[in-house]
Amino acid sequence: MNCDACNSALTEDDDEYVYNGKKLCEDCYLQVIKGPKSCDHSVVESIVSKRLDK
Ligand SMILES: [Zn+2]
């Protein structure tokens, strides 16, 4: 499977994190839950889209 945020392939060795119904790699999951304003979903979405741009 792939991370729904950064689309990187996750191996079976990787832990699987689910946030808001999305499967995330550990890296993206930590960014989402540790975002500067976790209550502001637009901030979270901007973080995710930045990662998609690379
Ligand atoms: Zn990811």
Task: Give the strand order, joined by hyphens, for the main sheet.
Answer: 1-2
Strand content: 5-15%
Order of helices and strands: EEHH
Shape: globular
- How many H/I helical runs? 2
> N- to C-terminal separation?
19 Å
Major pleated sheet: 2 strands, antiparallel
Number of domains: 1
The number of distinct β-strands equals 2
The mean pLDDT is 78
Helical residue percent?
A: 25-40%
In this entry the ligands are: zinc ion
| Category from helices, strands and their pairing | alpha+beta
Outline the low-pLDDT stretches: none
Radius of gyration: 11 Å
Walk me through the structure:
The chain has helices at about 25-35, 40-54, and strands at about 15-20, 20-25. With about 55 residues, it is an alpha+beta fold. It has one domain (about 1-54). The chain has a two-stranded antiparallel ribbon. A hairpin with a 2-residue loop joins β1 (about 15-20) and β2 (about 20-25). It is globular and about 30 Å long. The structure holds zinc ion. Zinc ion binds near residues 3, 8, 25 and 28.
